[in-house]
Amino acid sequence: MNLIIDRGNSAVKIALFENNQLVENGQWETLPVEHLQDLFDKYPLKKGILSSVGQIDKEVYAFLSGRLPVFYELNNRLPVPLTIDYRTPETLGMDRIAAAVGAFVQQPNENLLIIDIGTAITFDLVAKGGIYSGGNISPGPALRFKALHQFTNRLPLIAEEGEIPAMGYDTETAIRAGVIQGIVREIDSYIKEYQKNQTVFAFLTGGYAFYFESKLKNSIFADENLVLKGLNEILNYQVKIKE
User: Fold this and answer.
1) Which of these is catalytic: 95, 116, 124, 223?
2) How far is CA 24 from each of CA 9, 43, 202, 225, rounded to the nearest angstrom?
3) Using the 8-state DSSP alphabet, how is residue 116 labeled?
């Protein structure tokens, strides 16, 4: 059984896979060793991979590397089942690569646009055959709301929950509509642009995936576990190439 850990900017996601089937997954603010021990007590974990956007806790790393017969930390030196056509692969976010792999495994014969909406919004392109060519990064919903509040004198901090009219009728709805509709138009324009000269299959993932799925005009496939699936595939790929 595979243990998959994705430490993002605001949460830690853990998933367990058996024969490429998602058995269990959850999300936590932190990753204590005690919680990992509970998983090892409950499941026969043999292989694992850890992806982190920041510094990895030494105690957690030591625990995982000591308990798992096969364990990898995802970094830019680890082989992945994609061709990385990016000028600075050493700066490429591992979560972006994992999402790209997760999408490619599901649609290997399509041109892919992967949109991940979390703390940041990332847009990544994968051409047919698995060629990752890069993408763009934009502020996510929470960052946009916070920026309007922190960098102005009078605008309040607004949450995404609430009415979103076509045009705001007070300050609260003006901010919410501006942020949310701005993101919707941003995503729709990316999809429309990339579909001008070719067919593109668009994936939507991240913590806000289902929130935005119904608001988009273009057809899109939402999969909130895309990064976890990609990490599982990368783990299996390491085992395969060493056989």
Assistant:
1) 95
2) 22, 11, 26, 11
3) E
- Ranges of beta strands (E only) in 92-164 are 111-117, 120-127, 131-139
Angle of helix 141-150 relative to helix 171-194, nearest 10 degrees, comes to 140
Q: Which residue has the tokens 């929470």?
A: 142
pLDDT bin (cut points 50, 70, 90) of residue 54 is: confident
How many angstroms separate the CA atoms of 33 and 50, rounded?
A: 14
Told to judge if 170 belongs to the known catalytic residues of this protein, a careful annotator would answer no
Measured on CA atoms in the order 137, 234, 199, 131, is the torsion positive or negative? positive
Average pLDDT over residues 183-210: 93
For residue range 2-48, list pLDDT tens digits in order.
Answer: 999 998 877 899 999 998 899 999 888 888 888 899 999 999 999 99
Contact between residue 114 and residue 226 where contact means Cβ atoms under 8 Å apart: yes
User: Which helix or strand (DSSP H or E) is residue 204 part of?
Assistant: strand 200-205
Nearest to 14 by CA among 107, 55, 37: 37
Q: What is the 3-state secondary structure (H, E, C) of 8-42?
A: CCCCEEEEEEECCEEEEEEEECCCCHHHHHHHHHH
* Calculated CA dihedral for residues 85, 226, 116, 214, nearest 10 degrees: 140
